[in-house]
Structure formats: structure tokens, C-alpha cells
Amino acid sequence: MSSAISPLAPKTSPELPPVDGVRFATAEAGIRYKGRTDVMLALFDAPTAVAGVLTRSKCPSAAVDWCRDRLPGGEARVLVVNSGNANAFTGMKGRKAVELTAKLAAKAAGCRASQVFLASTGVIGEPLDAEKFEGVLDDCASRATPDQWREAAQAIMTTDTFPKVATVTTTLGGVRVTINGMAKGAGMIAPDMATMLSFVATDAPIAAPVLQALLRKATDRTFNCVTIDGDTSTSDTLLLFATGAAAARGAPQITAPGDRRLAPFRKALTTLLRDLAQQVARDGEGARKLITVNVQGAKSERSAHRIAMSIANSPLVKTAVAGEDANWGRVVMAVGKAGEPADRDRLSISFGDIRVACQGARDPAYDEEQTSAYMRGDEIAITVDIGLGRASATVWTCDLTKEYVAINGDYRS
Amino acid sequence: MSSAISPLAPKTSPELPPVDGVRFATAEAGIRYKGRTDVMLALFDAPTAVAGVLTRSKCPSAAVDWCRDRLPGGEARVLVVNSGNANAFTGMKGRKAVELTAKLAAKAAGCRASQVFLASTGVIGEPLDAEKFEGVLDDCASRATPDQWREAAQAIMTTDTFPKVATVTTTLGGVRVTINGMAKGAGMIAPDMATMLSFVATDAPIAAPVLQALLRKATDRTFNCVTIDGDTSTSDTLLLFATGAAAARGAPQITAPGDRRLAPFRKALTTLLRDLAQQVARDGEGARKLITVNVQGAKSERSAHRIAMSIANSPLVKTAVAGEDANWGRVVMAVGKAGEPADRDRLSISFGDIRVACQGARDPAYDEEQTSAYMRGDEIAITVDIGLGRASATVWTCDLTKEYVAINGDYRS
């Protein structure tokens, strides 16, 4: 783990209010790390609606398989997440480890195994010794309190340099509801329907199928717009829990995806997920600069997204930004390789508000000195206008530094 | 430019015999670099059959556009290549620069502009001052000799640390023919129907349409199997010239792609292109290890190739190899993200001859020490058996080191 906090970490981190119906505890199970927490348990006081989006990797972790099988049930009582070991590519042992963890969690929470949700993050290919959870989960359940969101976010960190939490409040049928969330990065991040790990809970009374529809849509514009290294994880898991506790305060029970009362909630959920997604980009391994890639004027949203991802995943664009070089030539290269409709002679490229290129060549008004000053900042926006249509997309990434290489050349050994 | 030669450079470099009908000269045109050659001219004594594969980038360089328009003519008299400036994303100025270069080259060679082929490599987005070629190309044409293959390969280098040349001899209708080639890398390498720049010439009398068919097929198994950073260049150009001079020694004129006498030539051409392609991987920016990725047991060749490329382009796999870590978990991740048919529980993964994982989990016989010793070598083979079919693919890449980041963070400034 890196010791220094990312220079891009948010300057302030919010206090998270409780979400009625969910409590947390963390512990040191000794999975891999020493002297830090590595397991968190979230306890739902009553059966809670759950939705999730999971990695589309063809080689998912055992915990992802478990969640995929349980999500159609739509009901959760407990969530257990460990760091230090991803329990991925661990074969039959991995499945047994998941089953044992679920059994221990169900016992701790006093629920059925089908109401248990699990996630693991850390090294791939090493067996996870789930017996280490024996006793630990019981103890967590007995200690769980509503005010430990930040501690929970800390327990699931791997190479992250800061815990990622966010909170928003909104209304449902005129009643105030809360959405809290946490996420972890920080490498192997190119979410494909979810990010590495993120857990969100609300007290809004929303049925699981509605929750699922909301979550999938919000994910496409948030977590699926982050990439650190183009490497999609085996463990991507985003779960959204709705305890429904706000019903006691008069919030309506929402059971139809088209319910108009959902509008503010939908917007608030997207805001929260975007906040967490950007925090993941800010804590990309070795990151020194946050890069926002805006693509406009594309033929379709899908095309805009693909071009934006091609730019955000280009090692040459990312190293240029690390070197504080407004190298628009590499942006052109990345547009060109995306395979999407583009016409060199219609492209415009800006860094921040400075247009460096237009109509297939350098902007005549380009000022090297002004641009260099901009590139020394720690938040860089690259905007590309394709000039062919009206669709747009925004994605977030970070620069590629020697530190990324150092972190990933030394991680396992 | 890096000063030290890649530790992966071939220990010996062949002497290239002349290819009858083609002569070279190089010069310092002062495009960008100081104190080194930056332009090479290849002169064909008679109209010469030409075939080519060019980048599929949607934003190709002006020289690529030029070649694409001239290739259907199938006839070359002169080739001009400069380094230091790619003349890509240079708009109308770029087209004018190409036209002026072609005019000067045609004058120097005493041919039509349609018989001129061009390529440029170097920085993108800066105007190329083609007036610098005035006089220089005439002088080159007057000095051209058949023995300057290596000097020509040197003149087209950018961040390359060594010139890349190769030679093979074969027979055509029982008559000995020669194929010589050169290539340059060393970053922005993920060829999509060609690599950055490569030029090959033979004295075999083979008609242009036949040459084109041979070249496209051979490219798919050679240059299209190399990736340094997944970044496809705007300038990828591979040209194959056949002077036909061997006809004077009795070689038959080949005009049909199905001609059986082509068999040895086809094989020799593939061998030569593979040699050059591997040299490109050996000189990848910052490379310290050559990585050969073999994928076996896939459902189709296309699927095998995509999985192999997903592994070879993964920053996490490449940094692990840089760190001498046999991190098969990251190989699993890269297989999983490729989106191709794969089944975690059938995967086998080997580093060299050491099987580290089988049937979805660590190989019980895995020996950390033996594997570590293997990973300290400078040539690493990663073999993945998908276990679903019989198709295979091999691709070449290099590790991702801090040096890559340094080279590309400092390149333009």
C-alpha cells in the first residue's frame, strides 16, 4: 500500500449521517495485512431491498458468482466484505470459502444464507482462508453501529490512499431520505457495469426491481465512466441497499420503475455515484493529475463514450499529461484508433478553455506558454469536438506515472 | 531519444545483401533532430511492383492518405521517408507538404508523382517543412547505392534504440531470390493492419495484386501480433516492393495469387516480417523484457488473438513482468476482460515451462522459487490454455517500466 495520500484527494470529506436500518462494524481478521482492519460487516435490521451490478469479466471472483446468484432474490440482511484477498481464480476452494463465509455471516446476522451478500478484494489466485472469519463476524454483528461508514470504507481499502465516502439527501414523496455510499479503487479499474467495490444504502422504501433499474442506469453515466488502467477487475461489485426505514416517517413505498415520485431520488443517486466514481479516479494508483475527458459532437452517445474511453485509456495521452505536455497529437491518435466515426479535418481539441487544435490542425491562436501553465495544474480537462453530430460523453481518469509502475511491479511480492 | 541500446536487441545483426533494382541514400534534412540522418530515399531502377498495408486509424497522417491513393496503381519508382515529424493532424498544410515532397522526389528520380511513395514518423500535430527536402532529395538520388539498408533503417528511427533490419533468401521457380526489410518502432505500437513503418523489398518478379495478397496475409500473423502500448499510430505503413530483377536470372513472372511456385516465397516473407515484428517488440519504449503470449485451446483464431492481445496490452500484466512477478491472477483478469469465450475452471496458465495454474486455481505443484528464477530472465513466455477449442495465437510485447513513462512524459517537450 502507498503511504502518502493522493494529492488529488478531496480537501474535505463529508460526515455521513446514519441511514436508518443499517449498522456497521469492522475487524482485523488477519487475511493479509497486519495492523489494520480488513473485514467489514454491514447489518440490516430488517429484510432490505437490494440491487447490484457486477463485473462482466468472463473470469469473475467466487464472491461475484455468489452475488449474481442471490440478486434475483432481491433481499439482504447482511453484507460482508474483506480486503487483502480477492478470492478470484481460486477454483473449488474459492467456492467453499464463499459458502463458509456466508454460513458464518448468516449465523452472525440470524438470517438465511440467501440474504447474505459478499465481496472480496485484493490479490487474485491465492486461496482465501475463510476460517479466519469464525468468531470475527459474530463479534462484528454484536458491535455494529450506524455511525461507522468511514471505518467500513477504510476496511475495504487495498492500494487506496484514502477512504471514499459520499452522502446526499433528497426527497421521496415529499419525505426526506438519505443515500450514503462508499467505494474503493485503486488499480485494475475499467469498470464494466460496476467498479471494483462500491456499496450504497438508503432508507428510501424502494422495491428491489425498481432499485435495479435505477442503479443500472445511473451506473452507465458514473462508474462506467471511470478508468484507471483499462484493466477490468474480476471482482467489480456495486450493491445498492434500500432499508425502507423512511416509510416510518411517511415515505411512500415505490414499486413501479415509472413512478414519478422517483425523479429527485434518481438524480440524487446519480450525483452520489458520480462523486464516488470521481474519488476512485482521484485515487488511481500513482495519480498526480485528475483527467476529465469530454467528447462532444459525436454521432451517438455510445460512440462518444468509446472515443472518450480510448483517450482515457491511452498510455501515451496519460504519460503526456504526467509530463505536463498538452500533446494533442496523441489525443488525435486516440480518437483515430477508437474505430468510431471521426473526421480528422473536423476535430477540435481543447485543454481546459484553451483550444489547441481545430479543423485538423493546430489552432493559429495557440499559445504554448498559456497552455503549459494550465498543464501544471492538478485537474486537467481534455475536450474533443468530433464535429459530426450532437452526442456527448464524459469520463474520468488519471495520469500514468512512474509511481503506477512501481506500485504494480511490487504489489504481490 | 534514449541513448542506451535496448538490452533485448538481437546480439547480432545480419549483413544485408543487395536487392537488385533498389538503391538507398540518407541525409540530414534538419527536420527536427540535430547531428543525425532524418531522411532516407529508396530509388527503384525500373518501375517496381508495390503492395502495402496502412493504419486503420480514422485520423491517418497525410503521407498515409497519399500512399492509400497511390497503391491501386501498384507501381513505384521512389520511396522517401523522414523521421522527426509525422505530418499527421497538420490539415491543409500537411497535404501541401506531402505534395511538395512528392514533386521533389519525382524530380530527383525522374518519374511521375504517382510513382512516389512516402512515409513520415515523429511528432504529431506540428507542420512539416517540406522545403527542407529541396536539393536534399536530388543529392540522395545521385548518391544512392544498393548497400545502404542499415543506414536507411537508422535514418527512420525515432525513440528506437537500434536499427531493425532482416534478410531472407528463398527460391521462386527454382531461382534464388532475396527479401530484405527494415522497420522502426518504438512507441504508439498496436499495429492495425501494419506497424509504425516498415519497408521490404525483393528482386522477385511478382505482380502487384499478388504481392498485396501475400502481404496482407503475412501481416496478420506478424506485425498485427505486436503491441507495445495498445496505441495504434496515425502513420502505420508497411510497404513491400518487388523489383523483378531476378527475372534476368530466370525467375518466373508471377501474376496469379494461387501460383504454386509462391509457396517458399510466402513462407520466407512471413519469416522476415516476424523477425522485424519481434525486433519492434524488443525495442519497445523502456523495454527490459520481451514477452511472448501464446493462447491455445480457444474457440477460434480470432478469439485466441483477442485474448492474447488483451493479456499483452494489460498494464497490470506488463508491470508484473517488469517486477519479475509471475502474477497469474492478472493474466486471469486479462482473459476475463477480453469478452471472448472463456471458462475460469478450464484455464491453464504457464510461465515458460512452469505451469502455475490449472483448472481455475493454483497448480498444486507450483514452486515459487523456480518461477521466480524464470521471471528474472529477459525473455518471458506466457502460455494460456483456454480449454475450449483448438485455435491458437501468438503475440509479442514487452514489459511496462518506469522508463516508458519517462520517455513518453518528456518526448515532445
UniProtKB/TrEMBL annotation, chains A, B:
SUPFAM superfamilies: DmpA/ArgJ-like (SSF56266). GO terms for biological process: L-arginine biosynthetic process; ornithine biosynthetic process. The record marks 194-195 as: Cleavage. It catalyses: N(2)-acetyl-L-ornithine + L-glutamate = N-acetyl-L-glutamate + L-ornithine; L-glutamate + acetyl-CoA = N-acetyl-L-glutamate + CoA + H(+). Substrate binds at residues 158, 184, 195, 285, 408, 413. The keyword Cytoplasm applies. It is found in: Cytoplasm. InterPro entries: Arg_biosynth_ArgJ, ArgJ-like_dom_sf, ArgJ_beta_C. Its main location: cytoplasm. One of its GO terms (cellular component) is cytoplasm. Keywords: Acyltransferase, Amino-acid biosynthesis, Arginine biosynthesis, Autocatalytic cleavage, Cytoplasm, Multifunctional enzyme, Transferase. The active site is at 195 (nucleophile). The keyword Acyltransferase applies. Its EC number is 2.3.1.35, 2.3.1.1. The record marks 121-122 as: Involved in the stabilization of negative charge on the oxyanion by the formation of the oxyanion hole. Pathway: Amino-acid biosynthesis; L-arginine biosynthesis; L-ornithine and N-acetyl-L-glutamate from L-glutamate and N(2)-acetyl-L-ornithine (cyclic): step 1/1; Amino-acid biosynthesis; L-arginine biosynthesis; N(2)-acetyl-L-ornithine from L-glutamate: step 1/4. One of its GO terms (molecular function) is L-glutamate N-acetyltransferase activity, acting on acetyl-L-ornithine as donor. Catalyzes two activities which are involved in the cyclic version of arginine biosynthesis: the synthesis of N-acetylglutamate from glutamate and acetyl-CoA as the acetyl donor, and of ornithine by transacetylation between N(2)-acetylornithine and glutamate. Heterotetramer of two alpha and two beta chains. Belongs to the ArgJ family. This is Arginine biosynthesis bifunctional protein ArgJ. It comes from Camelimonas lactis. The lineage of its organism: Bacteria, Pseudomonadati, Pseudomonadota, Alphaproteobacteria, Hyphomicrobiales. The gene is argJ.
